[in-house]
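Notes from the 1:1 (GR / supervisor)

We went over the backlog. Supervisor wanted to see one worked example end to end before approving the batch request, so GR pasted a single chain during the call. The sequence is below; no edits were made to it. Supervisor asked that the structure be written out right there so they could see what the output format looks like.
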Amino acid sequence: MAKTAARERASYRCSECGLETVRWVGRCPECQAWGTLSEVGAKPGLTIAAGPVSSPARPIREVPAEEAAHRPTGVAELDRVLGGGLVPGSVVLLAGEPGVGKSTLLMAAAAQVAESGRRALIITGEESAAQVRMRAGRIGAMSDELYLAAETELSAVLGHVDAVQPELLIVDSIQTVAAAAVDGSAGGVAQVREAAAALTRVAKERGIATVLVGHVTKDGGIAGPRMLEHVVDVVLHFEGDRHSRLRLVRTVKNRFGPADEVGCFDLTDDGIIGLSDPSHLFVCHRDAPVPGTCVTVSMEGRRALASELQALVGSSQAGNPRRATSGLDGARVAMLLAVLDRRAGLKLFEREVYAATVGGVRLTDPAADLALALAVAGAWANKPMPAGVAAIGEVGLAGEIRPVTAVRARATEAARLGFTHILVPREFGTPIDGIRVVEVATLSAALSMTGVAAG
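Structure output shown during the call:
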């Protein structure tokens, strides 16, 4: 009897060894063959006949492009990230860690949209309406066209959309919305999939710009099914250290504009403020140069940002010297230390090395390699970089300085900030007014030109 019940429950069979299992797997656990499990008693594929169409196909030139035009939110840095603003009917997913400022940013954007005469609706599932009202009063986000409702039931959310008829809908957060007809608790895969599909369908049908707030896992990924990122039109990541005021909104996906764009914000007690020129947050201003520092210019999307790198080299009392980084890739730093040791003669294998960025910014641009190497060399030799010098360039394992993208934009930003010299890879091109461009081919040449040499 037990064998009969087990056989009835088995729904997949391996075509190679005949193993039966209750669930499909890519690799047979018995014979280790790939892709051989198929459903027992599966019906052949159905033939679907042609049916009526919702609208006839038209030549592409006759399709109006005005329907996909961006409409500014009134928050300049957010509009920069979105490619110019929100597109009617688009669905945006904004994800970030708890307390980073997602709700505050969207509240400010909704208030600006409402002030322009477009109706906005905020659905909050994590806070009460009174709590959200207090935050709106604190940051000055009050408008007659801004509506607020606290709901977690999907049908009730759709009912509010029917009643208010907004042009902007904000759901905070998608993990709190659940449908009674779907099994599972709120935040589960099935519930998130159903809620996202329903809200996306309504947004497309009625031309409502919709923003979904998403949670993140402990690994930094967006919580819920991966399908969520495929369904939406724009995916934004809200980044920032809770101990720092700096906040970055980074574009991961954008069907209506450039991806990998970055917006900078300053989170204050009175709200969140866009920073059109955030370079001053990432560079320390001193009366005299200090050993172990160097400024580089990184590209965040299409924006050039000056950042200061700092390094400290000390003696080690243990057999395994410590390597600590903040805002930098530890593996990249280890590689540069090996290049400095082998190609430039800096004996760092018995020294402790600490490397960090200023302002809490995280740098992954390879163009910061040269500046970091110069900072470490200066800390090792206790020699400061000359005043007014910045450096950009990727360092190879052979000690060569490799070309990087957007060199002219980086050098122009350095000149705007008052730097007088900039070290760049070879084949730079025409000069730039206000700054002297120095081409370097190797790391040793860069150390010699700056006076931060080994020995």
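Supervisor's comment: The chain is about 25% helix and 25% strand.
Batch request approved.
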